[in-house]
Write a structure and sequence with these properties.
By secondary structure, this protein is mainly β. It has three helices and 50 strands. It has seven domains: 2-117, Sandwich (Immunoglobulin-like), CATH 2.60.40.60; 130-182, no CATH class; 192-278, Sandwich (Immunoglobulin-like); 292-387, Cadherins (Immunoglobulin-like, Sandwich); 395-505, Sandwich (Immunoglobulin-like), CATH 2.60.40.60; 512-605, Immunoglobulin-like (Sandwich); 613-712, Immunoglobulin-like.
Length: 779
C-alpha cells in the first residue's frame, strides 16, 4: 500500500515537472475563486492547478462535490484521479482551504468551479427496433404519387447520425419502418349546377364531402365574404343550398369545405366546391332608353341604314333565353304612306324601305317596336327626325358694297362695314348658317369678319393696324359659305360673292424700332468708349431719325444720335447694377418730331474685382479670462463677386508672422475658418488679429481683415460688465486713482499746516524762556 502511494506521488511529480506546473503563471497562482473547464473522458492523474498560500499555510484542504475524483496535494496541487463524465455531473462545486501546522484555516475556503465539457461519447439510439404507420393517398405534401392500388405497402430503413454526419467520429443507429398506404376519400366533388329560382323546398342537398376517419368537424369558408352565403354543411359532410339563387345577381360560387379535429386543427387542405347557377328565361327584354332618337337626311336613298335599336336581356348571353327579335308594330304619322321603314329582325337596324323623305311633308316619325325573346315581349319607342339637306347657297343682298376711305391709324376693333347674305335652307341649322371670309385684297390679314349667329349679319372689323405705306388701296372680295357641305350637284356661284374697295390715307407716324427690347452683354471691366450695343428704327414717312438715351441714371452710356450705336463713357460696375436698363428714344427729324421708345437691357458680366471681406461685423468675439485651455472661434468670409465666378473657395492665413506663436487660422470649408489660441498666456484686454483672405480668382484678390478678440472675466458665458458703467464714465481704477491723489494732496496740506503750527508754537516757547531769563535781571 505504501509502495502504491509512493508510485502515485512519483507519477504526479513526473507529470508536474514535464507539464511545467509549479511555475508561477498560467497553471499556478494565489488562492482565489476560479473556474476551470475540463473535457470529459480524459485519463486519471490530470493536474488542474497549483494554489499558492501565505507562509503560515503548510497544507491545503479540498471539500465539496469531489465525487472521489478531485484531490489536492499538501503543496496545493489540484488534480483529478478519474475520467470525468458530463452526463453524470456537468458541474462540480469545490472549496479549497489553506491550513497551518495545527490544522487551522489560514485562507479560504475559496469556491472552485469545475465545468465538464462535452465530447461525443454517446451514440443515438432509436427507442424501438421497428415502427409501423399509415398514410392516406394525396393527404399531405410529398405523398401525391402514392397509390394504394399500385403500392399498398412500403418498408423503410431510417438511420440517424449525430454531429450532423460531418465528423469523422460521429455515431449512428437505424431502425425499420412499415408504411401502409390507404385510399384518401377527402376529395373535391365534381362541379355542381343549380337551376336559378327553383321552387323546390329548401334546403336542397347539392353534394357531399367526407373525411377519411369519423369524428371530423366540417365547415364552409367563402373567401369573398358576401353579405349572404346561401350554403351550409352538416356534420355528415352533406352540403346544402338554403335559398333560391338568381343567376343575374351571381352566376357562380366558389367556396371551400374544411375538416378539423376536435381541437379545431385542420386535418388537411380545404376542398374547393364549385357551384354554377343555371339560367332560366326569367327576364323580359329591356329598352335602352325611353325613346331612341335617330336621324335621316331627306335625300337618303332606299335601303340606307338609319340607325340601330339595341335592346338588352339579362338572361345568359349566347343562349336561347337572350336571343331577341325586333318588329315594327306602328308608324306615326302614316304619310305619305305606312311602312316607310324596315327593321332587321335580329340586329335591330332600321332602313329606309320605300322612298326618299321630305322634311316639309313630315319632319318627324314615331315608331313602336316590339322586342321579344322566346317567352317575353317588350315595346320600345323610336323617334326618327328628318334632317334638311344643304341644297341652297347663301346669296348676298348686293354684289358691291362700294368705296370706303379710312386713315391708317383707325383703331383695332373698329367695325368699318356691315354685310348681309341669306340662305333658304332650314333656319338655325348647319345648312343655313353663313360664314364669311375674305378671299382677295387682304393678304396680310388686317381685317376680320364676325357673324351674328341669329341674323347671319357680317361685321367687318380692323384686326391689325392699317398701313398706308404698305398698301394704300384694298380691293376686297367677300365669300359667303355654309359650314355644312353642299349636296352633290350644287355649287357656290357669283351670288355668294361681293366686292368692296377700301382706301387707306396716310397719317404721320412715329418712328418704329425693329424690336421693343434690345439685349446686350459686356464685361464690367471694359474700357471707356467700348461699343456695347446698337439699335435701329425707321420712320414710316422716310424722315431722318435722331437717337437719344433716357434713364441713364449712372451716366455709364452714350448713343450716337445718327447711327444708334451705344458706347460706355464711364467705368461699369456689376456689383452696383448687374442688369442696367435704359430707354432708347428715336425722334423723327422734321415733320411733327414724333418719337418712340425701346428698351436696352445691358447685362454686365462679372470679373474678379472685389477682394474678400468678412461676411458680417464681428464685434462680440471673446474668450473668458483667465483662459484654461486653447480655444477657437469661427468666422465667415465673402466677397461681392458672383458666386459662380469665384466659386466661394477662400484661403485663410494670419496677417502677421509675429502672431504665429500665439494664434492659428485653420480653414473649415470654402467660406468658413477658425481662429484658435495656441496657449493660455494672454492678458485681459482686446487683441486685434489681422487675417488674410484670398479668393483664388483670376487674377486672385486678397484682403486683410481684423478680428477683435477680447479676453474678459465671464459671468454666465458672457463678459462681465460692472453695474452702472457707461461710456464716458470713469472706471473703478480711474476713480480709485483720483481718490488717492485727492487724499495725497489733502495729506500734504495737513502736513504743512501741522508743521507751521508746530513752528509757531516753538517760537512762542523761546520767547517765553527769554522772558523768564530777563525777569530776574529786572529785579
Amino acid at each position: 500500500m505504501m509502495m502504491q502511494a509512493q508510485l502515485h506521488c512519483l507519477c504526479l511529480f513526473t507529470l508536474y515537472l514535464t507539464t511545467g506546473y509549479g511555475q508561477e503563471g498560467k497553471f499556478s497562482g494565489p488562492l482565489k475563486p476560479m473556474t476551470f473547464s475540463i473535457f470529459e473522458g480524459q485519463g486519471p492523474s490530470q493536474i488542474i492547478f497549483q494554489f499558492k498560500a501565505s507562509p503560515l499555510a503548510v497544507t491545503f484542504k479540498l471539500t465539496g462535490e469531489t465525487d472521489d475524483i478531485f484531490q489536492i496535494q499538501p503543496d496545493g496541487l489540484l488534480y483529478h484521479n478519474k475520467a470525468l463524465d458530463r452526463e453524470t455531473r456537468a458541474v462540480h462545486k469545490l472549496q479549497v482551504s489553506a491550513l497551518d501546522a495545527h490544522g487551522n484555516t489560514v485562507e479560504g475556503p475559496v469556491p472552485i468551479t469545475i465545468e465538464v465539457k462535452d465530447i461525443n461519447d454517446n451514440r443515438p439510439v432509436f427507442l424501438q427496433p421497428k415502427y409501423e404507420g399509415s398514410v392516406r393517398q394525396n393527404s399531405r405534401p410529398g405523398s401525391q404519387e402514392l397509390d394504394p392500388l399500385k403500392n399498398p405497402f412500403y418498408n423503410l430503413v431510417v438511420s440517424v447520425e449525430d454531429m450532423g454526419g460531418q465528423k469523422e467520429h460521429s455515431f449512428s443507429d437505424s431502425t425499420s419502418v412499415d408504411i401502409t398506404v390507404k385510399e384518401n376519400i377527402w376529395k373535391a366533388p365534381e362541379p355542381v349546377e343549380i337551376e336559378e329560382n327553383s321552387t323546390n323546398p329548401y334546403p336542397i342537398k347539392i353534394t357531399q364531402v367526407q373525411w377519411n376517419d369519423p369524428g371530423a368537424l366540417y365547415s364552409l369558408v367563402d373567401k369573398e365574404k358576401p353579405s349572404k352565403f346561401p350554403f351550409l354543411i352538416d356534420q355528415e359532410g352533406d352540403i346544402y343550398v338554403t335559398q333560391p339563387l338568381d343567376r343575374e345577381e351571381k352566376d357562380a360560387y366558389v367556396f371551400y369545405a374544411v375538416a378539423k379535429d376536435e381541437h379545431g386543427k385542420p386535418l388537411a387542405f380545404p376542398l374547393q366546391i364549385q357551384v354554377k347557377v343555371k339560367d332560366i328565361n326569367d327576364n323580359p327584354p329591356t329598352c335602352p332608353s325611353t325613346v331612341t332618337v335617330l336621324e335621316v337626311q331627306e335625300n337618303e336613298q332606299i335601303g340606307s341604314s338609319i340607325g340601330t335599336l339595341i335592346a338588352h336581356d339579362m338572361d345568359e348571353e349566347n343562349t336561347v333565353n337572350s336571343v331577341l327579335r325586333y318588329r315594327i308594330v306602328d308608324q306615326t304619322p302614316k304619310v305619305p304612306r305606312d311602312g316607310l321603314f324596315l327593321v332587321q329582325t335580329y340586329l335591330g337596324t332600321f332602313q329606309l324601305a320605300v322612298q326618299s323623305l321630305r322634311k316639309r311633308d313630315t319632319p318627324q316619325y314615331n315608331l313602336t317596336v316590339e322586342v321579344s325573346d322566346k317567352d317575353f315581349k317588350t315595346l320600345c319607342f323610336v323617334q326618327i327626325n328628318i334632317i334638311d339637306i344643304n341644297d341652297q347657297i347663301p346669296i348676298f343682298e348686293k354684289p358691291d358694297y362700294g368705296n370706303l376711305t379710312l386713315p391708317e391709324d383707325t383703331a383695332i376693333g373698329t367695325v368699318i362695314l356691315t354685310i348681309q347674305a341669306t340662305d333658304a335652307d332650314e333656319p338655325h341649322t348647319g345648312s343655313s348658317k353663313i360664314l364669311y371670309r375674305i378671299t382677295q385684297g387682304d393678304s396680310e390679314g388686317r381685317l376680320e369678319i364676325e357673324t351674328d349667329p341669329e341674323t347671319n349679319t357680317g361685321y367687318v372689323k380692323v384686326k391689325k393696324p392699317l398701313d398706308f405705306e404698305a398698301v394704300a388701296v384694298h380691293n376686297i372680295v367677300f365669300q359667303a359659305e355654309n359650314p355644312e357641305p353642299l349636296v352633290l350637284g350644287v355649287q357656290y356661284n357669283a351670288s355668294s360673292s361681293a366686292t368692296f374697295r377700301l382706301t387707306v390715307t396716310d397719317v404721320n407716324e412715329a418712328p418704329q424700332f425693329s424690336q421693343q427690347v434690345y439685349q446686350a452683354k459686356v464685361s464690367e471691366d471694359v474700357a471707356k468708349g467700348t461699343k456695347v450695343g446698337n439699335v435701329t428704327a425707321k420712320d414710316p414717312e422716310g424722315l431722318d431719325i435722331s437717337y437719344s438715351l433716357r434713364g441713364d441714371k449712372r451716366g455709364w452710356l452714350k448713343i450716337d444720335p445718327v447711327t444708334g450705336e451705344i458706347f460706355s463713357v464711364a467705368p461699369l460696375d456689376r456689383e452696383a447694377e448687374s442688369l442696367y436698363r435704359v430707354q432708347v428714344v428715336a425722334t423723327e427729324v422734321g415733320g411733327a418730331s414724333l418719337s418712340s421708345t425701346a428698351q436696352l437691357h445691358l447685362t454686365l458680366m462679372d470679373v474678379n474685382d472685389n477682394p474678400p471681406r468678412l461676411a458680417k461685423e464681428y464685434t462680440g468675439l471673446f474668450f473668458c479670462y483667465p483662459p484654461k485651455a486653447p480655444e477657437s472661434l469661427i468666422f465667415e468670409a465673402t466677397d461681392d463677386d458672383q458666386q459662380s465666378f469665384r466659386g466661394r473657395h477662400f484661403t485663410f492665413s494670419l496677417g502677421s508672422e509675429s502672431l504665429q506663436k500665439d494664434w492659428e487660422v485653420s480653414k473649415i470649408n470654402g467660406t468658413h475658418a477658425s481662429l484658435s489660441t495656441k496657449h493660455t498666456d494672454f492678458e485681459e484686454r482686446v487683441y486685434h488679429i489681422p487675417v488674410r483672405i484670398n479668393d483664388g480668382g483670376r487674377p486672385p484678390l486678397e484682403g486683410t481683415v481684423s478680428l477683435p478678440v477680447t479676453f474678459c472675466k465671464c459671468v454666465e458665458d458672457s463678459c462681465f460688465q460692472p453695474a452702472g458703467h457707461m461710456p464716458g464714465i470713469p472706471t473703478v481704477g480711474v476713480t480709485v486713482g483720483v481718490l488717492l491723489t485727492t487724499f495725497l494732496v489733502i495729506g500734504i496740506i495737513l502736513a504743512v499746516v501741522f508743521f507751521q503750527i508746530k513752528k509757531n508754537k516753538g517760537q512762542r516757547n523761546v520767547e517765553s524762556a527769554q522772558a523768564s531769563e530777563v525777569k530776574p535781571l529786572r529785579n
